[in-house]
Amino acid sequence: MDSRHTLDKLADALDAWLRRGIGVFAWLGLVLIVAIITQIVLRYAFGEGRVWLEELQWHLYGVGILTGLGYTTLVDGHVRVDLVHERVSERIRAWVEVLGTVLLLWPFIYAVFAHSLPFFVESYALGEDSDAPAGLPYRWIIKGFIPFGFALLALTTLPRVLRGLNVLLHPYRP
């Protein structure tokens, strides 16, 4: 088994594992829809709302965004300049992908992760709850999704980097 095959297999296995894991968070979209509809019915049909339900909506939006960053990376859905990207060779695209990820994205992910982890740990240690009397308890859970989401984003970039390295180390020659 050559290293090209090894890099491809590793990238494919990691990609499949991450897709299954992130897929669980897609179901939170359904929970969000139910929470929104419930809040609308309570407010407009019965003239009352629930603070905890409104906070739950914000938390679910946050989790969706933070896990969606990684998912969008896995499915290659992030914005890029296609005019340029489509006109260059596969090797140049691989260089841009690997260098852009390693030199720009990973340091950014590290900075957010390093600054959000103490934010989460302090919230957990204090047993932080919502400031609203009828709000959600366990505020640390949503704060924990910030470092989790960025760690997930870092993991989802690994298959892309491995595939880029594969192209750079083993250029295709017909």
Any low-confidence stretches, pLDDT <50, length ≥5?
none
Number of helices: 6
Number of strands: 0
Describe the oligomeric state of these chains in a short phrase: single chain
Main beta sheet: strand number and arrangement? Answer: none
- Tell me the number of structural domains: 1
Let me know the average pLDDT.
91
Rg from Cα: 21 Å
How does this model look, in words?
The protein is about 80% helix and about 0% strand. It has one domain (about 5-170). It is elongated and about 65 Å long. With about 170 residues, it is mainly α. It has helices spanning about 5-25, 30-45, 50-75, 80-85, 90-125, 140-170. The chain contains 6 helices and no strands. The longest helix is centred in the middle third of the chain and has 37 residues, at about 90-125.
Q: Which terms summarize this structure?
A:
174 residues; mainly alpha
Structure summarized in a few sentences:
The protein has 174 residues and is mostly helical.
Topology:
Layout: H1 3-26, H2 28-46, H3 51-74, H4 82-85, H5 90-126, H6 139-169
Helix pairs in contact: 1-3, 1-6, 2-3, 3-6, 5-6
